[in-house]
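Journal club side-thread
Mid-discussion, someone asked how the predicted structure for our own chain would compare to the paper's figures. Pasting it here so we can look after the session.
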Amino acid sequence: MEQGEARAPVLREGMIYRPLVDGRVYMYHPRSASQILDARAVTALQLCRGQSLSGMVPEVCAVMDCDVTLEEWQGFLDRMARSGFFEGIANRDARRRLFDPGPIIEFITEKGRWLFSTPVVVLLFGVLAASLVQLGFNWETFVNAVESATGMHPFLSVFLFYLCFVPVGLLHELGHGAVCGRFGGEVLEVGVWTDSANLYVSSNKAPLTTARARIIYLAGGVFTDMLVFFLLLNIWLRWPSYGTLIFLLPQALFFLQFSYAMEKNSDLSRIISEWTELPEAEGRWGFVKDFLKSRPKSSAEWKRAAVYLGSIALQLAVAATLVWAFRHATHVKLWSGAEFSVPFWPPLLYLIYRTLRKGATKLSERLMKPA
């Protein structure tokens, strides 16, 4: 059975340490996950040479320059153990490092300072408005194309819907990273979540000390999405095909249904939290539950409530519009000889996709747990 806890830990050989601003350190190993830690915590980790935890505590307290209990130290080491930082303990972290995007971000922040100006932000919102207007004028064509694509290639469409969103998701994360770099932060790695196959960008956000910087950082991904949406839509309008549509479809659905959704840890939810200086609600339905129990009492709480309620109302209206748009029966071909007509087929196929993805994620999380 693999060891899952750190009892007499030995720090893995070959660890790489990169000093960062504000007393932070980027710590990683080619065969383990990475962490951004306080420099004192890294020094304390370097004390792990196989001795007992109780014997380490006095040294740890001296290095950390604060009182650390045995339970606190044990909990910290167990978290580090899941990242595979100790000999004999497998990496159970769901993240895997792919490459260092630092040079790309440095080039953008140095050569493209104009990208972070107010006129560009206004232009991006104009681009988004233009995209939605274009989609509206071509709505019937779009609906018919989606029905045809999902009817003729249902299995392939589910797979490609997921696959085509991966590079777009990476651009979203790099948008966050570029803003982080512009405000003095450091972008350290691009990696993949093994439990969902989604890409991520890891950054040192310690220099983002003002609410304004953090809000712009959170908005950076959506700003990138606006431009990508505009480009993908116009590529499809210029060269309509199954290939161009399947790239456009997840991005179109994102803006129509999810970009403004108040999910827990979503960009908008965190932006509203920074703006109102209130903690995030537990998702939109968690907010509704709390709202029905107790009405807001301060102006900040009413601001947050207005955004949440507006988001929920808009999301429900758009969802109803999308379902109604695909109400007509779609001719579906599963394989030769298996053909039938199904009303509301694209929304139903998307529901199947979400169910499969959720099941795959839960299975991956279960497999990642220590024995």
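Post-session note: The radius of gyration is 24 Å.
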